[in-house]
Amino acid sequence: MTTMTLSAKRQVVLPAELCRQVALAPGAQVRVELSSDGCSIMIQPATNTLKKPMSVLLGRVKHHGKPITIEEMRGLAIAQTMAKADNL
């Protein structure tokens, strides 16, 4: 949790990492609501987009095991495509 200070204009600055996680860029529209219990404030993107920046995805994906080369990934993708074609 991050503690922020409310300015004289009642503004706060959202941490950059938090904005990246929910795909908020400067100028993005947000929706601000009081929670149902009345004790907290919820800030959400105004538009629910399924597109996330690559930085968000890379931060969440973890690979366990030995590293894989790009060529190995391409080979796997080709093999999967060929397997799907054979099943049709």
Ordered list of secondary-structure elements with their pairings:
Elements: H1 16-21, E1 30-34, E2 41-45, H2 54-60, H3 70-87
Antiparallel strand pairs: 1-2
Summarize the structure in words.
This protein is of the alpha+beta class. The chain has one domain. Helices cover 35% and strands 11% of the residues. The protein has 3 helices and 2 strands; from the N terminus they run αββαα. The protein has helices at 16-21, 54-60, 70-87, and strands spanning 30-34, 41-45. It has a two-stranded antiparallel sheet. Strand 1 (30-34) and strand 2 form a beta hairpin. The mean pLDDT is 82.
List keywords for this structure.
11% strand; two-stranded antiparallel ribbon; alpha+beta; 2 strands; 88 residues; elongated; 3 helices
Summarize the structure.
The protein has 88 residues and is of the alpha+beta class. Helices cover 35% and strands 11% of the residues. Strand 1 (30-34) and strand 2 form a beta hairpin.
Name the beta content range. 5-15%
Compute the number of strand runs: 2
User: Could you say how many structural domains there are in total?
Assistant: 1
User: Which structural class fits the helix and strand makeup?
Assistant: alpha+beta
Radius of gyration: 21 Å
Strand arrangement within the widest β-sheet reads: 1-2
Report the uncertain regions. none
- N-to-C SSE string, H for helix and E for strand: HEEHH
**Largest sheet descriptor:** 2 strands, antiparallel
**Average pLDDT metric:** 82
Q: Give the terminus-to-terminus CA distance.
A: 50 Å
Tally the helices. Answer: 3
Morphology call: elongated
Percent of residues in helical segments? Answer: 25-40%
